[in-house]
Automatic annotation (TrEMBL):
Keyword annotations of the record: Metal-binding, Signal
Protein name per UniProt: Molybdate ABC transporter substrate-binding protein
Similarity field: Belongs to the bacterial solute-binding protein ModA family.
InterPro entries in the cross-refs: ModA (IPR005950), ModA/WtpA (IPR050682)
Highest taxon above the source species: Bacteria
Pfam (any one): SBP_bac_11
Claim: Signal is one of the keywords in the record: yes
Keyword Manganese: no
Gene: modA
NCBIfam families: modA
Signal sequence range: 1-24
Amino acid sequence: MNRKSLSRALTGLILVTLASCAPASPRQDRTVTVFAAASLTDALTEIAADYERNEGAAVRLSFGASGAVARQIQAGAPADVVVLADPEWMDRLGAAGRLTDRRVDLVRNDLVVIAPTGTARLADPFSTLAGDDRVAIGDPESVPAGAYARTWLQTSGRWDAVKDRLVFGTDVRAVRAFVSRGEAALGVVYRSDVVGRTDLRIVLEPPAAEQPAIVYPAAKIVGGGREAQAFLDYLGTPAAAAVFRRHGFEPAI
């Protein structure tokens, strides 16, 4: 190899080495992956967009039933932050060693009974169920809203009348879809699931004494990236709280 060719080869090698050592762009280096309960889809999508715009970081969101989300993380899914609709599922992740001590209760919610728009609001809509009318709730084994609904139906004395009419959704969004499509006469979901919907209406609000304590805890995952704590902190800011309220959630404290 002559001197000119050798010089070109060395220059190319130096450029490749420098490129490999160059720091990642701020956006690539500042990415947070968030796994969250399906009922938070609208609120967290808006909050993530605000965070990206204001903080210059990238937020990746993955939604599902809290039980399914917790199982994915327990199995090693690459998440930085998790937000669930049930403290018990979060406790299980903690017991499995998947969480740091960075955990906070973010917001709370209430149960409501929904029906298609146009359905009359009666003192007890369950009393009008007839024929093959169905009642939709989340699968109690993996969907916190379903477990809360089952408990409320039992404690309010309605369980025996509806247990043979139940259809189970994979998350609260699926329950809402059952009712919206007319496949169920009634559904039990969170209040936040009805915000902004014109195809559904609330036909019954369980009184405060019957409402379960529905709290959404958030936590940092062990091994989460450096942006995890920053995003977790942002979820507790007044700006994020305003978005949560707009979507039907209330502060946890």
